[in-house]
Amino acid sequence: MQILVTGGAGFIGSHLIEHFVRGGHDVIALDNFVAFYNPGIKEHNVEVGRAAAEEGHGSYELIRGDVRDEEQVSDLIKSVDVVFHQAAQAGVRTSVEQPQKVNDINVSGTLNVLEAARNADVERVVVASSSSVYGKPEYLPYDEDHPTTPVSPYGASKLAEEHYTRVYHEVYGLPTVSLRYFTVYGPRMRPNMAISNFVSRCLNGESPVIYGDGTQTRDFTYIDDVVMANTKLLRNDAADGEIMNIGSTDNIAIQTLAEEIRDQLSPDLELEYADRHDADAEHTHADISKASELIGYEPTTTIRAGVEKFTEWYRQNRDWYEPLVRNS
Ligand SMILES: NC(=O)c1ccc[n+]([C@@H]2O[C@H](COP(=O)([O-])OP(=O)(O)OC[C@H]3O[C@@H](n4cnc5c(N)ncnc54)[C@H](O)[C@@H]3O)[C@@H](O)[C@H]2O)c1
């Protein structure tokens, strides 16, 4: 199949690409290499896609461009069957500082993708949404009927993306799906997230820093499970028009996570605490039964197994990854 992955040089996009190319698909990545974190990580992600293509499976083409560029997006989408829209200004805190910019990229960018896809008659558009749309928990785990009251401009922008995505299915019959990812981690993950920070600091003999008192909980989803959910949508129309949680097998308190990583890597370190940001969610925990029923989504990586895999990968890739992570 011909596939477009927007944000294809990013963390999740590049894993999707690696998997699709290895599966024999022809993939185009669109990315503007924004310096939200060290773009050196994205350059490396691109090499991973190229290497997969060189092994002789599918093909890989990188387009440096912007989802806000209507003409470029429309030209690219004409040649593909399926779009996985990952491009976004991620990160809750940036959105508090620059809400208009985030709206522009996330909402207008998504609208460009949907509009081009409608005109080109693509087979499916899969949009990356976020657990941030839920905001304040009224009950846990969140199912998709839980009220959506985002507590950050980022969450509001993701909710708007979802609404447009659903409306394009209802009004124009475009096959679309929104996936609400719950904190995704794994090799090549974004810097400045709890797991990459804790592992990096502990391996360097520095205390892991917890924002808040550490009682907040997160549903951390291993990248392979996210790739699996997206892959199931390549040829499956069972979730068209739907919004689904993509979470993990369980959730964990940040303090417990920090302690476990510390105990494994550098047991003598004390935990450090810093101020919690108001826009950070208090708890996230996904009910994944909808995705399980519709597309057979079954996450397999527990947080402990995933952190172990990430730490092992970090050790093996420390030479190039660590300087970039710590300079982000
Ligand atoms: N990682 C997570 O925990 C998580 C959780 C929930 C939702 N998401 C969503 O998943 C998607 C991918 O996230 P990620 O963690 O891989 O982030 P990422 O920042 O690594 O990837 C996003 C990519 O989009 C690119 N991009 C940004 N603005 C662009 C623009 N205007 N035009 C073209 N490309 C642009 C960036 O350069 C980057 O490479 C995002 O939509 C994000 O909101 C991620």
The CATH topology of one domain turns out to be Rossmann fold
Structural class per helix/strand content? alpha/beta
What is the name of the CATH class of one domain? Alpha Beta
* CATH architecture label name of one domain: 3-Layer(aba) Sandwich
Rounded radius of gyration (Å):
19 Å
Query: What is the CATH superfamily classification of one domain?
Result: NAD(P)-binding Rossmann-like Domain
Poorly predicted runs: none
The end-to-end span amounts to 35 Å
Beta content comes to: 15-25%
> Major beta sheet, specifics?
7 strands, parallel
Protein architecture, described:
This protein has 328 residues and is of the alpha/beta class. It contains twelve helices and 13 strands. The chain has helices spanning 11-22, 39-54, 70-77, 92-97, 99-120, 153-172, 194-203, 223-232, 254-265, 289-295, 303-316, 318-325; strands at 2-6, 26-31, 59-64, 82-85, 124-130, 176-181, 184-185, 209-211, 217-218, 221-222, 242-246, 252-253, 272-274. The chain has a seven-stranded parallel sheet, with helices on both faces. The chain has a two-stranded parallel ribbon with strand order 7-10. A two-stranded parallel ribbon has the order 8-13. Helix 1 packs parallel to helix 2 (39-54) and helix 3 packs parallel to helix 5 (99-120). The protein is globular. The structure holds nicotinamide-adenine-dinucleotide. The site of nicotinamide-adenine-dinucleotide (NAD) has 30 residues, from helix 1, strand 2, helix 5 and strand 5.
